[in-house]
Input
Amino acid sequence: MVAICFGALFGLTGCQSGPQNWRDKRPVAHSVQAGNVTIRSNFVIADDAPIIKELEQLQLNITETLQLPPPRDPVMVYLFSGESEYRRYMRKTWPSLPARRAYFIGTSRELAVYSFHGPHVEVDLRHELTHGLLHATLNSVPLWLDEGLAEYFEVRGPTTGNLHPEHLRTLQRAARKNWNPSIARLEGIVNFQEFDRQDYAESWGWVHFLLHDNPDGKRILLDFLSQLKNSDSAGSFQAKLQPFRHQLVAHVSGLKDSTEQSFLRL
Ligand SMILES: [Zn+2]
Output
């Protein structure tokens, strides 16, 4: 489970304050570049490590799929060698945040991802870096779309758009129980701590539908993102998407999950 936390840069509450010596506690002994992203860690990561190649490819996939310009702000990744060290840092630095394996945190200082080297690191970094790149490129992103895109791009595989098995199961189960998707409900959630697994699944479902069901959907999504490049708001997505809710249910119901292997480690 992952979440995004906006800091002072975005004018929201919850994670503005850190300890006075917060800079001293981050893992900064080593540094390696992955495309436009700098990864700092307290263990060595080779320039040609598989994770570096994967994150470089991820950035290309995001910018190509969403037709985004190069990021205008740098994105940092702080990667701890162990989970306990990471948990301790996060608890002391951002005490109001619930414990999660990884975070993207935007503050007035920087856009930064925090996580640790563990069995889920590739998926977690894919998810959080998607947040980072969106916020480094756009003026703002609605929470549900931010999470939907992060869930979409966290799925590993040779191409983009592979299915997210957990979300697909959730949505297909809902579809059998007269699921009536509401983009208005998702748009109404502005606190990431109120975003539950059903919300993540629905957001992923909308993004997958928009990018893969028909060209109209992709055009609507790209137009919306284009407006957000230079504006703090592109208005509500509700009017544009709600007429598609039955097509969303049909899209999800017709998907066949054959991509479990994409979650295995390389
Ligand atoms: Zn997230």
